UniProtKB/TrEMBL annotation:
This is Alpha-1,4 glucan phosphorylase. It is an enzyme of class 2 (transferase). Belongs to the glycogen phosphorylase family. It catalyses: [(1->4)-alpha-D-glucosyl](n) + phosphate = [(1->4)-alpha-D-glucosyl](n-1) + alpha-D-glucose 1-phosphate. The modification N6-(pyridoxal phosphate)lysine is found at residue 682.
């Protein structure tokens, strides 16, 4: 393993080799020690769960040494740090990743084998850390991996939810949510009971004038909740750098109980107070691309932001620098608007607590923050009601009004007498009740605003943030196309493909510089290489087929075309179009003679993804997929020609198994609605082809891999608005093939038709907002092209190899380097300096 780690990283790493295991015996000694002491068990009753725990503890010990050294190195260097503030970190499992990033999975495999365990079974024991909903949270996790791997001084800040995203069970075809209590045993976190911050809520503001005539505001009263830090080490790949993810947990301020109440006999209320405090970090809100405006969510946001800023400011103050140097030492990235209160909180710290002038403070604030927007969907843009703000954070509301006043004055100077413009850009929406527009606050409080793919970044400049481009000029708005970490999404998820690639590129350096993938294109006509390529895909499909059999009882043929759509269930992502397409295919097959059917390309349509618990339409889509599966999978006429599978509880660790097994994946959002998408990149990196719309990062993927290697269809983003307008005001007919699909559903082919009428009438009666009917024909036609292309297996393999070879751009390393240079103004820290 060591020999495969690229120079010069290997040298730097070896120089710090206090941390690795010497050999498998050294590893085994540590595992046995942890079983016998930390876990207090004997090796004679060490099951797989105990082996997982001990193995994790052994690796954790190694990580923590490097974690300490990295923190020391960063402190001595005293250079700029970046702080990534995200309400979600969708980390998945840690053990496999730690073993691979440290470069000692082989040692562990050999050691565990001697102790009587298969490493795959041990890895499977780990519960996913699922502190996120979907793309946004997983992006944050990929960024942490890249920041550590590239030796940036970087911290993540988030919330330590007691319950992550719910576990999904499918019962009688319906989604049922089960709480995800994941903290029973988590060896990857370190409680820092000495790192706590008191966080204030509610109360009131008093103002007085000091001797110089300056107004001093004081926020008093209310209640205090304690934030306790939990640290999670983030190992870089093939580097000793181990960064920190700090997650805050809430606790009652006055210890476990309110002893006054306790002693006066009010035991129940003292417990209730404690529980109320702990509620703040209790549960992740399970909405993807939807804002529900709940008070507890605002409390979570302030709790986390205030604790993180206190921590950041405390660290800055240790360097005894002047405040004006703050932005030279600190860059803070806002992952969507969720942490936007940080803008106001830093201004409050500087003005109210540190006594800086407004102007000077505001300069520091705006030079510190960058804001990443992840969506244009209006229902996802955060707004908080002014009365709620007034109640929970009275001083912050005042500061927001002041920030808005100065901002609107500057707009007025640039656009005199344009009252409409002022109303449009104001941070306060003049509705009933008034609302604080968090995106506006984030733009005004940051020096850079970025979208996450080219089309998306263009769209925000021409639609939702158009006025701000006029106010601030175009240079404030930029694009950083998303990326994924090739360590988890190639090396870890698809070890055989990673191995094959390294055998052709000559080393594993492509995992550090993904553009080296280009080298494999020289082998695209090499017979042995192509054979191995196809065998790996087949083996991955066999593994998934086994999982399908085990979890659903359905037999699928691994030689069929595996067609996968796994992502959160959302109308804009159009799983409904996919399942309507599947029904169309079923009806077509039924109408053919047995002879004609034989010419058909067998397919397995695989779905997976969670619906937000309150999202009725998304749940209906899940129900229809399962209902169609129940009919199709048991139809003797159909056999292996078509199977429909819904995989329960899609999450990061399942993605690691599903993605390498796909032939075709679907990224079919209505053009202009998916900001980027990141699973599209993961599928292509694993040799799968894509059927997709001209949306998000699909466009840049096409540019990189070539139009001949992707199946694009559907209307373009630029035409969507007109089409919608025509739905409402013009003539409008549903696509004839789709009409037949609806008729089949309404006849009861898939059970009670009323269960699915919401989906049908959204298209037929309610304006088809997501253009399902408009795109249906070209979707079906393109699926036929896919069938044809797949029957030419040699051609398909060529497309697959070419695509992978050209995916270098989509590494999150490239993405992080763009943020570092264009937004954070920060350089990697040399590791040899220690
Ligand atoms: C989310 O996962 C995304 C956007 C959001 O906007 C919220 C959530 Cl929870 C508020 C996704 C986008 O839908 C997806 O296109 C993008 O690839 C991903 O963020 C990362 O940028």
């Amino acid at each position: 393993v060591e020999a495969s780690i690229p120079e010069p990283q290997r040298k730097a790493w070896l120089a710090h080799q206090t941390s690795g295991f010497k050999d498998k015996d050294g590893f085994e000694t540590e595992v046995v020690r942890h079983v016998e002491t930390t876990l207090a068990r004997s090796m004679y009753n060490c099951d797989e769960q105990a082996a997982y725990s001990a193995c994790s503890l052994a690796f954790r010990d190694r990580l923590i040494l490097e974690w300490n050294r990295t923190q020391q190195r960063q402190t001595f260097a005293d250079s700029k740090r970046v702080y990534y503030l995200s309400l979600e970190f969708l980390m998945g499992r840690a053990l496999d990743n730690a073993m691979l990033n440290i470069g000692q999975k082989d040692v562990a495999k050999a050691g565990l084998a001697e102790l009587g365990f298969r490493i795959e079974d041990v890895i499977e024991q780990e519960h996913d850390a699922a502190l996120g909903n979907g793309g946004l949270g997983r992006l944050a996790a990929c960024f942490l991996d890249s920041l550590a791997s590239l030796n940036y001084s970087a911290w993540g800040y988030g919330l330590r939810y007691r319950y992550g995203i719910f576990k999904q069970e499918i019962i009688d075809g319906y989604q049922v949510e089960v709480p995800d209590y994941w903290l029973d045993f988590n060896p990857w976190e370190f409680p820092r009971h000495d790192v706590t911050v008191d966080i204030q809520f509610y109360g009131h503001v008093t103002k007085r004038t000091d001797d110089n005539g300056k107004t001093i505001a004081t926020w008093e009263g209310g209640e205090i909740v304690k934030a306790v830090a939990y640290d999670v080490p983030i190992p870089g790949y093939a580097t000793p750098s181990t960064n920190n993810l700090r997650l805050w947990s809430s606790k009652a301020a006055s210890g476990e109980f309110d002893f006054q109440k306790f002693n006066s006999g009010d035991y129940e209320n003292s417990v209730a107070d404690q529980q109320r405090a702990e509620t703040i970090s209790a549960v992740l809100y399970p909405n993807d691309n939807l804002d529900r405006g709940k008070e507890l969510r605002l409390k979570q946001q302030y709790f986390w932001v205030a604790a993180s800023l206190y921590d950041i400011v405390r660290r800055f103050k240790k360097s005894r620098r002047a405040w004006k140097e703050f932005p030279d030492q600190v860059a803070i990235q806002l992952n969507d608007t969720h942490p936007t209160l940080a803008v106001v909180e830093l201004q409050r710290i500087l003005v109210d607590l540190e006594g800086l002038d407004w102007e000077e403070a505001w300069n520091i604030v705006t030079n510190t923050f960058g804001y990443t927007n992840h969506t244009v969907l209006p229902e996802a843009l955060e707004k908080w009601s002014v009365p709620l703000f007034q109640h929970l954070l009275p001083r912050h509301l005042q500061l927001i009004y002041d920030i808005n006043l100065f901002f609107l004055q500057s707009v007025e100077r640039k656009f005199p007498k344009d009252r409409e413009m002022l109303a449009r850009v104001s941070i306060i929406e003049e509705s009933q009740p008034k609302m604080v527009r968090m995106a506006h606050l984030a733009i005004v409080g940051s020096h850079k605003v970025n979208g996450v793919a080219e089309l998306h970044s263009d769209l925000i400049k021409t639609t939702i943030f158009k006025d701000f481009v006029e106010v601030f000029g175009p240079d404030k708005f930029t694009n950083v196309t998303n990326g994924i970490t090739p360590r988890r999404w190639l090396h870890q998820a698809n070890p055989r493909l990673s191995e094959l690639i390294s055998s052709k590129t000559g080393s594993q350096n492509f995992l550090k510089d993904l553009t080296e993938l280009a080298k494999i294109e020289h082998y695209k006509d090499d017979k042995a290489f192509r054979k191995e390529w196809a065998e790996i895909k087949y083996a991955n499909k066999v593994r998934l087929a086994k999982h399908i059999k085990k979890t659903t009882g359905v037999d699928v043929n691994p030689s069929a075309l595996f067609d996968v759509q796994v992502k959160r269930i959302h109308e804009y992502k159009r799983q409904q179009m996919n399942i309507f397409g599947v029904i169309h295919r079923y009806l077509t097959l039924k109408s053919l003679s047995p002879e004609e059917r034989k010419k058909f390309q067998p397919r397995v349509s695989i779905f997976g993804g969670k619906a937000a618990p309150g999202y009725w339409m998304a749940k209906q889509i899940i129900h229809l997929i399962n209902a169609v599966g129940a009919v199709v999978n048991n139809d003797k006429d159909i056999g292996d020609l078509l199977k429909v599978i819904f995989l329960e509880d899609y999450n990061v660790s399942k993605a690691e198994m599903i993605i390498p097994a796909s032939d075709l994946s679907e990224h079919i959002s209505t053009a202009g609605t998916e900001a980027s998408g990141t699973s599209n990149m993961k599928f292509v990196l694993n040799g799968g082809l894509i059927i997709g719309t001209c949306d998000g990062a699909n466009i840049e993927i096409t540019r990189e891999i070539g139009e001949q290697n992707i199946f694009l269809f559907g209307n373009l983003a630029e035409d969507v608005e007109d089409i919608r307008h025509n739905h409402t005001y013009g003539s409008y007919t549903v696509d004839p093939d789709l009409v037949k699909v609806f008729e089949a559903i309404e006849k009861g082919t898939f059970g009670e038709p009323n269960d699915f009428m919401g989906m049908i009438s959204a298209v037929r009666d309610h304006g088809d907002f997501y253009l399902v009917s408009d795109d249906f024909h070209s979707y079906i036609e393109t699926q036929e092209l896919v069938d044809k292309a797949y029957r030419d297996q040699e051609g398909w393999i060529t497309k697959s190899i070419e695509s992978v070879a050209r995916m270098g751009f989509f590494s999150s390393d490239r993405c992080i380097n763009e943020y570092a240079e264009g937004i954070w103004n920060i350089e990697p820290l040399a590791v040899k300096d220690q």
